[in-house]
Amino acid sequence: MLLAFRVSNFRSVRDEQELSLVRSRRLARTSADQADAGEQHWNLDVSTVAALYGGNASGKSNVLEAVSFMARVVADSYSKWSPDGDIPIEPFRLDATHPHEPSRFELELLLEGVRHQYGFELNQHEVLREWRTAEDFGRLT
User: Fold this and answer.
1) pLDDT tens digits for range 66-120
2) CB–CB of 141/32 below 8 Å?
3) For 6-27, what is the mean pLDDT?
4) What are phi and psi of 66, to 5 degrees?
5) What is the radius of gyration, based on Cα positions, of the chain?
6) Strands 114-122 and 127-136: what pairing?
7) What is the DSSP code string of 62-83?
8) How does pLDDT run across 41-56, given as a tens digit for each residue?
9) What CA–CA distance (Å, rounded) separates 11 from 89?
10) Helix (H) or strand (E) holding 39
11) 9 Ramachandran zone, left/alpha/beta (phi>0; psi -120 to 50)
12) How far is CA 136 from the centre of its chain?
């Protein structure tokens, strides 16, 4: 289950933008967690549907393209990209600073009660950082 996707410095997206499917507060401990020692209870309200809406040329398509680009990086970078070639990233180019800054992609997933966070930063020449964390949330309520 997708919880959130974040992107910055990609096409028309300069500053970090987040697409969150969590309807209310983030994964927050319920009061039952304090009463029930040893077991975790989590209040999770995640939407299975999302909509992006806004004016023309406001970046909706580029947020979706960022999701697609992240998927292609994960699926194709090792097998289809040349080790000596450039990374086909399109950073924000409407100011002097951002074309030289790294682009950042991150997602949060919930799989079988475990929250996974995965992301990376890259520029046209290399992957600068990559991270993955996992946190077991136990029983979800």
Assistant:
1) 999 999 999 988 788 888 889 999 999 999 989 999 999 999 999 888 999 999 9
2) yes
3) 87
4) -65, -40
5) 18
6) antiparallel
7) HHHHHHHHHHHHHHHHHHHS-T
8) 455 688 888 888 899 9
9) 9
10) none
11) left
12) 19
Q: What is the pLDDT of residue 3?
A: 93
Tokens 């004016």 belong to: 55
pLDDT at 34 over 60: no
Amino acid, res. 11: R
Q: Which of 129, 107, 114, 104 lies closest to 7 in space, CA to CA?
A: 104
Sheet holding 127-136, edge to edge: 17-20, 2-8, 103-111, 114-122, 127-136
C-alpha span between 97 and 104 (Å, rounded): 15
Q: Which residues pair with 46 in a beta bridge?
A: 22
Nearest to 105 by CA among 77, 79, 137: 77
User: Of the ranges 28-32, 56-60, 132-136, which one carries the lowest mean pLDDT score?
Assistant: 28-32
Q: How far apart are CA 30 and CA 52, in angstroms?
A: 30
Beta-bridged to residue 113, according to DSSP, are none
